[in-house]
Amino acid sequence: MYERIRNLRVDKDLTQYQMAEYLNCSQRVYSNYERGEVDVPTQILIKLADFHKTNIDYLLNRTKYKKPYPPS
Questions:
Q1: Is residue 64 part of a domain?
Q2: Which pTM value belongs to this model?
Q3: Which of 1, 29, 33, 34 could form a disulfide with 6 if both were Cys (CB 3.0 to 4.6 A apart)?
Q4: Which positions make up the signal peptide (predicted)?
């Protein structure tokens, strides 16, 4: 999971600091998410999926399909 979060950020040429600002956390906390040192809270996973236009299952490495789920 952590590698996917990092790769999505890098693909958009964003820094950890920029992602941390979007997620309203510190760069250090975001770095810990990417390295897998702390579990990513559900609300952060939702924000990451929305930001990267993907689904949470993709972030959690449960599927290889990046497409977001259709709105309910």
A1: no
A2: 0.89
A3: 34
A4: none
